[in-house]
Amino acid sequence: MSRSITPYQTSIGPTHPAFKEPIQLVFDLCGETILKANFAPGQAHRGVEWMGTRRNPVQVLYLAERLCGICGITHSLAFARAVEQIAGIQVPPRAHYIRSIACELERIHSHLLWAGVAAHELGFDSLFYLTWRARERVMDLMEAFTGNRVHYALIQIGGVRRDLSEDMILKIKETLDYYAGVYDELRTCLLEDSSVRLRCRDVGILTATEALELCAVGPTARASGVPSDIRRDHPYAAYADVEVTSVLPNQYTGEIRGDVYDRIVVRVLELQQSVKLIRGFLDQLPEGDLLAIPKIMVLLAKLKKAEGEAVGLHEAPRGEVAHYVRMGGAETIAAWKVKASSYSNYMSWVPMLVGEQVADIPIIAASIDPCISCTDRVMLTGGGRNEVWTKEDLTRLSVAKTRRIQAKLKAEG
């Protein structure tokens, strides 16, 4: 006699070893098969945008850089581009090239970090150690260049804060030679290992149609055959002076399936592309100034008079990032809204997960390279009323909730 299996619901998160940041995934399951998938963000909120509207644009750069703990240049560059458009500031050519070099070094760092995390989610920790050992070289390089391994403080409105000396250019070239030397080993381990293929091929499929309908960006979209890339579609900084092509998985596999494996392929190929782009930038690096307005007080005076609105775009390692900024002729900015790459990629989880097995949830979720804290937002609605919660209100509510939980635990023994 056959016995039917009753579907049931379960969730992963918001705190779970597979997620380095808080988010909740909710599933309807039949046995080990996922029938329906959904997610519940909103577990983290830092009020960064609110704080930004109470600071001048130069001060906001420091907040923008700390939206993400991995992307050390992504948000500060997108914010600066928006402000520069509003204020009519022309960035010097040399600064454009230094920005682009830093962006591609950041891409190498981010993709290697992601590859290690993905390997860990697969239980392949020797590959995790291999990729993160390679990642150390670019982090050491950025520390030598900017003074820090994570938050670089490189971007200034109107240019950059650090120049590339001959010694630093030599260090960059040595690092590029290192990555060219280990690339074949990384590609073999990530793309040709039978364990990786078995766990990732035809798992977590996102079709090109789904990627377009759900507005996926970056490697997530390109792995499904959607050739979107801000560096190519809307060139900025020094990208207009070099040829940037969209990396698609069929360049390596000869086909596009839009699965987890294809998303690995895109990032591995982009490592090689970034090395090539940086070499091109170094070969064409022009002489000249680093800042359009070197004196900070002159810059602040100009920004205080600026009025208008603009959107700053950047092709981050995870995909398109957009910063909307409005300035109204005051010392502080009037409005600031951030759309991180993961915000665009979250919805792609739903078709990726449906029909898959519970054991594949970690690698499918990780395959879009999610960044939770730079994406999360909070919204309060209450019958059409506009409400403002102060720091004291939030502290009071947090303390009250903690006491309720403590009382409940105490009552339960």
Give your account of this protein's structure.
- With 413 residues, the protein is mostly helical.
- The protein has a domain at 57-306 and 313-320: Cytochrome-c3 Hydrogenase, chain B (Orthogonal Bundle), CATH 1.10.645.
- Helices cover 49% and strands 12% of the residues.
- It has a three-stranded antiparallel beta sheet with strand order 1-2-3.
- α4 (93-121) packs antiparallel against α12 and α5 (125-146) packs antiparallel against α6 (166-192).
- 41% of the residues are buried.
- The mean pLDDT is 90.
Main sheet record: 3 strands, antiparallel
The CATH top-level class label of the domain at 57-306 and 313-320: Mainly Alpha
* Mean pLDDT value: 90
The name CATH uses for the topology of the domain at 57-306 and 313-320 is Cytochrome-c3 Hydrogenase, chain B
Helical content band: 40-55%
Structural category: mainly alpha
N-end to C-end Cα span = 44 Å
Order of helices and strands: EEEHHHHHEEHHHHHHHHEEEHHHH
Spatial shape: globular
% residues in beta strands: 5-15%
**Helical region count?**
17
Read across the widest sheet, the strand sequence of neighbours is 1-2-3
What's the short version?
This protein is mainly α. It has helices at residues 48-52, 57-65, 74-87, 93-121, 125-146, 166-192, 194-200, 208-213, 218-222, 230-233, 250-253, 260-284, 296-305, 341-345, 349-353, 361-366, 391-411; strands at residues 8-12, 24-30, 33-40, 155-156, 159-160, 307-316, 319-328, 335-339. The strands form 3 sheets. A 3-stranded antiparallel sheet has the order 1-2-3.
